[in-house]
Amino acid sequence: MGLEKLHPFDSGKWGKVINFLKEANLVTDDSIVRAQEAREDDLLVVHTRQYLNRLKKHILESFEEWSFVVATITEIPPVLFLPNFLVQRKVLRPLRIQTGGTIMAGKLAIERGWAINIGGGFHHCSGDRGGGFCAYADITLTIKFLFERMEGVSRATIIDLDAHQGNGHERDFMDDKRVYIMDVYNRYIYPGDGFAKRAISRKVELEWGTEDAEYLQKVKAHVEAALDEVKSDIIIYNAGTDILYGDPLGGLAISPQGIIERDEIVFRAAWKHQIPILMVTSGGYMKRTARIIADSILNLYHVGLIDTDLAIEEAGST
Q: Which residues cross the membrane (predicted)?
């Protein structure tokens, strides 16, 4: 409805990634696993009912509350004045579909060794609060679903390489020793959540303008060290592209090739340690990020780290 023009996020990013992969003949409609919308009972595995109620209108008097909450999370002030049915259909439902995609991809990763959700990675949302464009805690939900419903899954490692600190899943797993969190982020930008930092097992704080050589050296060293330190049953890889040079929100200076090499480093480490990996695409606020994500997935295929038995999730491509 034109709201995307008021927001730095490219709302067509996910669909563009799928189209690029189709053009390269890596995927077809038959080889894409379509995401299903996360239902309320799914969301209640992590989220409080009070939080979910604040995202929707039950009675007229709650108008100001629900509209304010969603407008604040999405950082689009005009959402404040939209009817609830439009907010649900155009804003929250696509996010619930992406959340369902991450949960589905977690199961596929365990079964097949890898999966990619073209979407998801809402790492600023925790059980009782949203923020930073993130309304549902898909990473937390996926890990909890795997712990509860997949036999043999009792430990998880989160490798969060988005430019921003992943304070949502950090708050959710603050006292859960089954979850190891590695977070590499620009120390000077949102959210600066000092409390959540206490949950990070391996913290790598970057300076403004960090470039490829330093970044890739740190990623490789710390990913290897993290996987050596704890033997997990699943890796959730939050592969934000807001580390790209020129990104208006990331503040780092990584090249497109640097992003492709970063993703290859993480997947190679997962294969070396024989740990299933789920990748979500998270942040990235430039029009060219869709092409880079697609190029990175194509590279993973060409170097043999993913195969043609595809477990790519299409989520949020509307």
A: none
- Run of H or E including 277: strand 277-280
Among 63, 109, 94, 107, CA closest to 309: 109
**For the structural domain made of 11-37+99-314, what CATH number should be given?**
3.40.800.20
Can you tell me whether residue 164 is helix, strand or coil? coil
Question: Does residue 77 have a cis peptide bond before it, meaning omega lies within 30 degrees of 0?
Answer: no
Residue 176 tokens read as 């859960």
For residue 28, what is the DSSP state? -
d(CA 101, CA 113): 16
Catalytic residue among 123, 124, 164, 169: 124
CA proximity to 266, closest of 314, 231, 242, 300? 300
pLDDT digits (tens, 9 = 90+) for 43-76: 999 999 999 988 875 434 444 555 667 777 776 6
Cα–Cα distance, 283 to 238 (Å, whole number): 9
In which element (H, E) is residue 33 found?
A: strand 33-34
